[in-house]
Specification:
By secondary structure, this protein is an alpha+beta fold. It is built from 2 helices and 6 strands. The chain has 2 domains: about 80 residues, predicted glycosyltransferase like domains (Thrombin, subunit H, Beta Barrel), CATH 2.40.10.220; about 35 residues. Strands 1-2-3-6-5-4 form a 6-stranded antiparallel barrel.
Length: about 160
């Protein structure tokens, strides 16, 4: 009596490469979510996402080197999701994604430690009070404009003969 074995390729057949790279994931509503891609292969990727993704949901992954690719969520373990590309990457696309350096975020002046220190928080007047100040400023500005106009008219009348 012999033992018969059948080998099947499943969606996890490709060699995985550890990348730990920041990326943008688009959920089922196509809203952007900042994520970290843990591993990448021709057939899919593992991603850590801060929001819950539905198993079977179609998503998009924006990653430097490959651009935006559509995928499907196939498994979950905590905040780590396994996803498969709807159209697998070619070997060339995978090499490009692995060779492309991760994009570095541009530091904004408001971030701590970025170009100079973050500005101090300025206390603002309540919205109603700001509206009153703006209205008073507008009335005073019109008063000055009208007063200057009348002064100019009187000056011209005093210069011209009657």
């Amino acid at each position: 009596m012999g033992l018969v074995a059948y080998l099947y390729r499943d969606s996890r057949w490709a060699e995985r490469h550890s990348v730990e790279r920041d990326a943008t994931l688009r959920d089922a509503a196509w809203s952007p979510i900042d994520v970290t891609v843990e591993d990448l292969s021709e057939s899919g990727f593992g991603v850590v996402a801060p929001t819950e993704l539905e198993i079977g949901a179609q998503i998009g992954l924006g990653l430097s080197g490959i651009g935006m690719r559509e995928a499907r969520v196939v498994r979950r373990a905590g905040d780590l999701y396994g996803c498969e590309f709807l159209v697998p990457l070619t070997a060339q696309e995978l090499r490009a994604a692995l060779a492309t350096p991760p994009m570095t975020p541009i530091p904004l002046p408001l971030e701590t430690g970025a170009i100079g220190e973050a500005e101090e928080h300025v206390e603002r007047l309540p919205l109603g009070m700001r509206a009153v100040v703006i209205a008073i400023g507008a009335v005073l500005a019109w008063g000055v404009a009208i007063g200057l106009g009348w002064a100019a008219v009187r000056l011209v009348r005093s210069i011209l003969p009657a």
